[in-house]
Amino acid sequence: MVFIARQEPFVCEHCGKHVEPLTNGGYRNHCPHCLWSKHVDRDGPGDRASPCGGMMRPTGLDQESRKGFVLVHACELCGKHIRNRAAPDDNLGAFEHIF
Question: If you average pLDDT over every residue of the chain, what do you get?
Fold first, then answer.
């Protein structure tokens, strides 16, 4: 799997909020406000090679000993599941409104 580091601001296509890149050395791939993501990567983080482009619904929250909280996303178009490390500023309380 290829990892391509990308620090890019974006506007969330789910909630419309402007999202800034992380400043702690991590890489943001989901909205910290509503926790939604977009299916843009195919083979590895940052490759931007997915032709799908579907919205990725947050479907679960796990806790791993080494990674801390991990968000589980499912693409609403193709069904692909992706696990993403939660960012320090993520509103994990948004899960109360998702389920």
Answer: 86
